[in-house]
Request: fold
Amino acid sequence: MKVEDVIAEGDRVVVRLTSHSRHSGEFMGMAASGELYTIPEIHIFRIADGKVGEHWREADMLGPMQQIGAMGNPGEKGKREDGAA
Reply:
C-alpha cells in the first residue's frame, strides 16, 4: 500500500492510499491470472477516547476486476477484433 495523503481535523482522520497486488490465487471462481492490479481507496476514521470509533472505506473494486481480466473495459464494448466499430 502506498499512502498518498493523511488529513486530520477534529475527531476525523482521512487516509487516501493505493493498494498494489498481483492476482496470484483463485478469486471468485477465477483462476489466478498473474496480472498486477491497483485499488485506489479512501478511509475515514472517527477517533474516540484514543481509539477508532468508526471507520468508512470507499474503494474502486470494478477497476481491479477489469485489470485481472474478469470483466471487459467499458470502452471495449462493441469493438470488433479487426478494430472496426
Notes: The first strand starts at residue 2 and ends at 9. Helices lie at 62-67. The longest helix spans residues 62-67.
